[in-house]
Amino acid sequence: MSSKRYITRRAQQVAARTEQAIRSVAKPLAKYGFPFRAPTVPRGISIPEKPDTLGSNFETDWARRPLASVVRSAFTAGPMKLMTSVLARPEVLGLDRLSDLARLDDPSPLIFAPDHHSHLDTSVMIRAIPKEWRQDLVVAAAADYFFDKRWKAAFSALALNAIPIDREATGRQSAELFRELIDDGRSLLIYPEGGRSPDGWAQPFKGGAAYLSAKTGVAVVPVHIEGTGAIFGKGMKKPRPGRTRVIFGEPLTAIEGENTRRYNARIESAVGRLSEESVSDYWTAARKAARGSADRVAGPETASWRRKWQLTERRRREVSGRNSRPERSWPNLGPRQK
Amino acid sequence: MPRPGFVLDVDRSTPPMLFWHGEKFSLERLPSDRSRVIYPAESFPGLKDPQGAIRDALENPLDMEPLRALLHADMKLTICFDDASLSLPKMRRPDSRQRIIEAVLDLAAEAGVDDVHIIAALGLHRRMHDYELRHVLGDRIFDAFAPNGTLYQHDAEDPENLAVLGETDHGEVLEINKRVAESNLVVYANVNQVAMDGGWKSLVTGVASYRCLSYHHNPESLQNTRSLMDRHHSALHHSIWRLGKVLRDNGPKVFQIESTINTDAFPSPFEFLSKREWEWTARDRMTYLATSKALNRMPRRAARKMFHGIEAPYAMTGVYAGFTESVHERTLEDVYRQHIVEVEGQTDILTLGVPFISPYNPESIMNPILVMCMGLGYMFNMYRNKPLVREGGVIIMTHPTYRDFHPVHHPSYIDFFDEVLADTTDPAVMSEKWEKRYAEDEWYRHLYRTGNAYHGVHPFYAWYWGAHGQQWAGKVIIVGGDPTAVRRMGFTPASTMDDAFELASDVVGRSPSITHLHVPSVLVADVK
After folding, report:
1. What are the b/e assignments for A180-191, b being 16+ CB within 10 Å?
2. pTM (2 decimals)?
């Protein structure tokens, strides 16, 4: 018998013995019930409900401790960066609008308020936000989605520094926590729409970002994210890699006497202007915004097929969300001179 | 609080002084007890909210209505801005001009102004590359205006796009860009790095024709400019202000926005360049040693690339808007507050370390003519009242002065060096004999209009810029310069600083007084 065949034979024998040993150890455990398994509940007995520790009650303090921060930094710089680069290839614009704040000795915290099209948005934003704010960034994440299971909640808190927030109504507890975190010098990433866009158009902004900004005096940075919806939008089963673009706007603060609703409308229109800027240019967006004729971020209020139709037209003008370049629009130079 | 500038009397315990030597630097020990060093003030702090300051300046201008009130829907609005010759080195993004122009455009958009043109006020400088325009204006403005042709650069040689607005009582004709002349409102976005910049000079030179510029860019004006940093005693500025009056009376309404910057020119790890030598830390000393050794071994091209890649952390220290003359007076107050250092009496020898950059070689080569222009034009003119060096004294500059020219940016400089300087170094003679030929040369004109070349006449202007210093000094010595190039310019080459002092003794005797102007950082010596 050659040595090669002998080694193969011996390996097979060792594998078979190992399998048998594992089976013999596991067998009694499978056969035995309680206490090796969870107890069954006697009929007629109701167990008092334990306080819910998931959802908006999930405790996230531990995720902001130094060790967790180190793990998160490694995750952000490693797998998240890789995933973002491969899937989304973001182009970040408008950082110059934050440069004055970034150059301060102790940059004040900010509330970043982007529109929301995809789960990718958070990782794209975390990579795009300048390092002055990235380190201390907390992310407001939907309590009913990211904190409904313990493993999901733990992962969100550890990897994204996510804090649970109720989508429908920001509870007193969440609001107080966010205020404390901001007062503590942490910046916040919050999606004012409350969830991912169902059809590609933005949804009306809820007042959470405006409320927190007005209460804490911290500036809100409007942000437009383009392209993530086409890569991994709501309802898509697997991502289609493409390009994305993140445009930061001028930081906004509440004007004296301005109520939260108006302030929120101002944030929404600033994001709308950035969205227009991404498909046209800065000057066209400024003029449209001044005339009040900018395309609504929320899209036209028409039948759903027309909304979809118009969205297709808009995406044709976008540079992001796909691999091919958009059609080149040459300026109209007038009739040819002879 | 930044410490003010001061004059240091050199004694035996004074450490060697830093001298620029083109793309290198060296430490030179100055003779004790008869030398002094003029140190600039420390950099002023920048504005905390420059964006807010700009908006405030636009809403509360000097001697004019707020910009908002001057804008209306059916108007022609033209925005002009300084070219890449400011700031030096280029400031990190966002540039002050971007901030100013974006604030103006926001107001224009609110007023519904459709007809907006943005023009780089180049004068006879080279056209800026697209990447330079992007750097100065930011991507947003560039992407919005450049593709449809409403962001462009002034062409001083385009007869169809020039218009005559009138004539001064000295017979100077104001001929400027037609679009500027026909606009309802012209907004000028300015960066004032030194006192010479700004005022009427911005528009009257930035968007003028060669004919118009030749009235003040000539040997006579520049020899009577005492100094470039003191507009009230500058023949050049007097001529420009006369032309400015014609512009004010016959031209479009001008809304001037001037911004000042501090002197924080070098980022880490080059901060030691702006420090006083005795305050260098161990880290500064190590950085100096490592950098200077590396630069000595580095190919010249690589060193140049490294230095021109520096983005200065300049911060905006003030911004004023409104009527040009009122704005400029306020700007000058700010600039002088930062730059003026009082100096007692003149000196026999003035020493100058000439750096790698001048206003005419951003992203380019500092050729011998620009060394002369920088040393005798700009650095010598950093005074008020009297020059730092006495009449007939000696100016010692340190620069390698190699015979390198950028063929794309400075084509006419090459011929000027070989042809004109071989014939004469006298500004008046060259003006009479050679200037017209270079100014009207079709090839240079073509390169200026379509490429990235300085105008054919520009080397003459660079030479005239140093005319006052050349006339004033009894001898000019360049330490470490290429002997052939130095001699071609009519100066004396020297190998070391000690040799230079030895050569100077022929003119100023054996124990002359010496003054060193400490650069980097800008200062204007107010000589009593």
Report:
1. ebbeeebbbbbb
2. 0.83
